[in-house]
Amino acid sequence: MQISAALVDEVNGPFTVRDIELDDPGPGEVLVRVVASGVCHTDENTRRGNMPMPLPGVLGHEGAGVVTAVGAGVDSVAVGDRVVLGWPFCGGCANCLAGQPRYCERVGEAVVGGHRLLGPKVGQSGYRRADGTPVAGHFFGQSSFATHSLAQANAVVRVPEEIPLELVGPLACGIATGAGAVLNTARPQVGASLVVYGAGAVGLAAVMAATNTPATRIVAVDVHDSRLELARQFGATDTINSTGVESVSEAVRERLGAPADFALDCTGIISVVEQTIATVGMRGTAILIGGAPAGATFTTDHFSTVFGKRIVGVLGGEGRSHVLIPALIELYRQGRFPFDRLIQYYDFDQLEEAIAASHRGEVIKPVVRISPEEQPG
């Protein structure tokens, strides 16, 4: 079928909306008309060549929409279902079987391989130009910067009727990454302290999630007072503007009166990563979430680390999309996870503007509207 997609032809090239062809869903696949898609720094990092997605290709990985067709053997969702497009996974490796599909042993291929992960056409892209020339797609299993997406049926998550589809796409990645790192990885106990470095979409989602735990001190660190004010509104007990602060980890320790139990880096900036690690003490856990450039390295003090300190990397909030996303939607419905306040909407042809506004720090979580929800499938 013919669809419209924001195509990137080469590294550093622009997003250009064009008509391309998309396969019908095969066994285990679903076709989803995309209503809206969140815009994430990972999309921009991939366009810039920092992730090895083949180009030309279709990016976007925070999509939500309506199922319009299903392939053979699909009975988990049906035509007309409203869904969030979750992360792809093979389902058969040790990590998938252990309940951690974010760490699927084929995760690199799944998210940036540019082709199908499963099915009879595994290794092939379902996207092509009008002349038949292949185009890389299946970015994070969805390539949601398009009017339609071809996704694995086992990766999509149903959305309740009363929840706007244009809102929930970011639960596929950015918002779930911050919240899941707290709820699935840190799991702070009664009286715990938790520090969040970086009050963007991921960090503020972590703050919101932390307010739904027994943690009693939640510290947000950023360089923008406006974002720190939001963090306070979302439940941070303390905030620190790190501008001009020589040692942020020491400033945090002074504020808390002790090393933190948990510290999360949501920036991917190596100097901040190192401060994050220094913030926690014996048996404390530093959780690395932010996406640093490929090949980046960090250092830490060995002596202090061997005293039970843990340094943990987290992808996508860990766990299963089918558990985490519905939980976050329910917390939102109850007024306990107001992630809608982070979102600003753009039209599909404003994708570049949305990215630029995010880069300037003017918008926390941009979302592009691609098609009206009420449009016939």
Automatic annotation (TrEMBL):
It comes from the Bacteria. Residues 13-368 form the Enoyl reductase (ER) domain. GO terms for molecular function: oxidoreductase activity; zinc ion binding. The keyword Nucleotidyltransferase does not apply. SUPFAM superfamilies: GroES-like (SSF50129), NAD(P)-binding Rossmann-fold domains (SSF51735). Pfam families: ADH_N, ADH_zinc_N. Keywords: Metal-binding, Oxidoreductase, Zinc. InterPro entries: ADH-like_C (IPR013149), ADH-like_N (IPR013154), ADH_Zn_CS (IPR002328), ER (IPR020843), GroES-like_sf (IPR011032), NAD(P)-bd_dom_sf (IPR036291). Its cofactor is Zn(2+). The keyword DNA repair does not apply. PANTHER family: NAD-DEPENDENT ALCOHOL DEHYDROGENASE. Belongs to the zinc-containing alcohol dehydrogenase family. This is Alcohol dehydrogenase. It comes from Enemella evansiae.
